[in-house]
Every structure is written in structure tokens, then in C-alpha cells.
TrEMBL record:
Domain spans labelled Fe2OG dioxygenase: 145-253
Pathway: Alkene biosynthesis; ethylene biosynthesis via 2-oxoglutarate
Gene3D superfamilies cross-referenced by the UniProt entry: B-lactam Antibiotic, Isopenicillin N Synthase, Chain
Keyword line: Ethylene biosynthesis, Iron, Metal-binding, Oxidoreductase
Domain of life, per lineage: Bacteria
Entry's EC annotation: 1.13.12.19, 1.14.20.7
Pfam families recorded: 2OG-FeII_Oxy, DIOX_N
Protein name (record): 2-oxoglutarate-dependent ethylene/succinate-forming enzyme
Organism, as annotated: Bowmanella dokdonensis
Length: 279
């Protein structure tokens, strides 16, 4: 299995991108319309936030799940017992955020959500008819006016050497949501699991946009679009001293959206969050 960046401006971009999502659960886009200077700026300013003690003033709320999640409470992936080596901030337009950082994050959230709606319309248009028949409404409508779409600012701190031996930055997992949109991080490390169990580096050239299928779209498409396992590995050598920042946007349907015979978005999300131990 190989992941190749699709040129957003190429005439066959839509088909090539959706085919990559079908084959691998991942699609990588270059020359896409999301403003790279905005992403750069967010990486820089949030690095300063994570380096400061100000973050303690924005501790997350267990009820609403917005705010700062310190390393001591960060996730343990399904099936693992050791916590990931990361801290993160959950941004929702209605949630807590340092005011000085809000305008940029709000702007990115809007741009990336709008672009995701376009990508979902590509997915729908290029789904085989028997797959598209399963969608309870157009995919791009499922996320319209959703209050659940989550922008996560992730900071993987430099390694100190006294991490638990088996801990990694993000243990192998699948995303819960419909679709994830992720600008290439400022350092490598993201890998996706291939069909024969091999780990493949996601092309992380600065400026690439990485898109992956989440469990909810796998559910809604009857498995045609696979929610592929991925992870973030630890850096080696002198790179151990470097932080890594990434910015996944997890597109969530409104809670009442029907995904399948078994699940609405809400019932699905609750089941998965309980498994993760965060609710
Ligand atoms: O940091 C990354 O590159 C990916 C993060 C990720 O997979 C996640 O938070 O679900
Ligand atoms: Fe993920």
C-alpha cells in the first residue's frame, strides 16, 4: 500500500482522492485552498501556550469536554494501558479558549469545516450507488450546523527519557468521527497501517492536507470507506528534543443524524467515549 498526494488542482482530483479514501482510509491533498500561513501561525502561537503555565487556567471540563487536557489525563487508546505522550486543547466555537488565540482558531475552524463539506460532497458523488443508498442524508448535510465538530490542538512534548518504555506519542487507534482533516504537522511521525499490517509513513510535506475516514463514515458506508488504524511514533536521536504540534479537525454529525440501522451519531459517540474512559 502506498499513499500518494493528490493535486487538488488536477482534473481527476476528485476521483483520485476518493479512490485513495476507499483503498486506504486516507487521502493526502496538495495545492488545497486552506491557508498555510494561518496554520503556521497557529502552530507558533500554540507552542507558546503549551510552554506557558497559562494552560492551567483552561483545564478541561469533564461535562463539556472543551479546554486543556494535561499529559496526566490524556487518552489511552482502545486496547492499551499506557497513556499517550501528549497534551491537547479541545476547541469548540462555544467553548473555552484564550481570547488572544480565539480569532485565528475560529478562522481556521470555519475554513476547514467548509472545505470538509466540499470533500464530503466528493465522497458522496464518487460512492458506488449501493453505498450512497445507505446514506440517510447527503454527507455534507450531516455536519451542517453541528456543535460537535472538534478542533484539537495537539502538543507532543520533547521526550525526557523517563517515559514508560512502551509509551508512544499516539498509540494505534481509529478516529471515532465522520471525517478528519489534518494539516501536515511540523514534525514527522504519523503512520497508517497497511492491509498486511505494515506501517506506512503519511507524506508529511509541509503544506499537505491529510484526510482520513473515521468510524462513523465507515459505519454509514457499510465499510466501503475504512476507518484505518494510525499512530504517531516517537522521534529518534536529536529529534527527541523537538516538540510536535498538530491540528486535527474531527468532523462530527449532529447527534440525531442516523448513521446506520444500529446507530445515530450520538449513540455511537457515547459508546466510543466510554471505551476510551473519558466519560
Ligand atoms: O498528530 C497527528 O498527526 C495525528 C493525531 C491523531 O491521529 C488524533 O489525535 O486522532
Ligand atoms: Fe487519529
Amino acid at each position: 500500500m502506498k499513499l500518494v498526494a493528490v493535486d487538488y488542482l488536477a482534473p481527476n482530483a476528485e476521483q483520485a482522492f476518493v479512490e485513495s479514501l476507499h483503498q486506504t482510509g486516507f487521502g493526502v491533498l496538495k495545492n488545497h485552498p486552506i491557508q498555510q500561513s494561518l496554520v503556521d501561525n497557529i502552530y507558533r502561537r500554540w507552542q507558546a501556550f503549551f510552554d506557558s503555565e497559562e494552560k492551567q487556567d483552561f483545564l478541561f471540563s469533564k461535562e463539556t469536554q472543551d479546554g486543556y487536557f494535561p499529559p496526566s489525563v490524556s487518552e489511552t487508546a482502545k486496547g492499551f494501558t499506557v497513556k499517550d505522550i501528549k497534551e491537547y486543547f479541545h476547541y469548540y466555537p462555544w467553548g473555552r479558549c484564550p481570547e488572544a488565540l480565539r480569532p485565528q482558531l475560529a478562522e481556521y475552524y470555519q475554513q476547514a469545516t467548509d472545505f470538509a463539506a466540499t470533500l464530503l460532497s466528493w465522497v458522496e458523488k464518487h460512492s458506488p450507488a449501493q453505498v450512497a443508498d445507505k446514506y440517510s442524508q447527503p454527507l455534507s448535510h450531516m455536519i451542517k450546523d453541528s456543535q460537535q465538530t472538534l478542533l484539537r490542538v495537539l502538543h507532543y512534548p520533547p521526550l525526557s527519557g523517563d517515559e514508560e518504555p512502551s509509551a508512544i506519542r499516539a498509540a494505534a487507534h481509529e478516529d471515532i468521527n465522520l471525517l478528519t482533516v489534518l494539516p501536515a504537522a511540523n514534525e514527522p511521525g504519523l503512520q497508517v497501517k497497511g492491509k498486511s499490517g505494515e506501517w506506512i509513513d503519511v507524506p508529511c510535506d509541509f503544506g499537505n492536507l491529510i484526510v482520513n475516514i473515521g468510524d462513523m463514515l465507515q459505519e454509514a458506508s457499510g465499510g466501503y470507506f475504512p476507518s484505518t488504524t494510525h499512530r504517531v511514533i516517537n522521534p529518534q536521536g536529536t529529534d527527541q528534543k523537538k516538540s510536535r504540534i498538530s491540528l486535527p479537525l474531527f468532523l462530527h454529525p449532529r447527534p440525531d443524524v442516523v448513521l446506520s440501522d444500529r446507530h445515530t451519531a450520538d449513540s455511537y459517540l457515547k459508546e466510543r467515549l466510554r471505551e476510551l474512559g473519558v466519560i
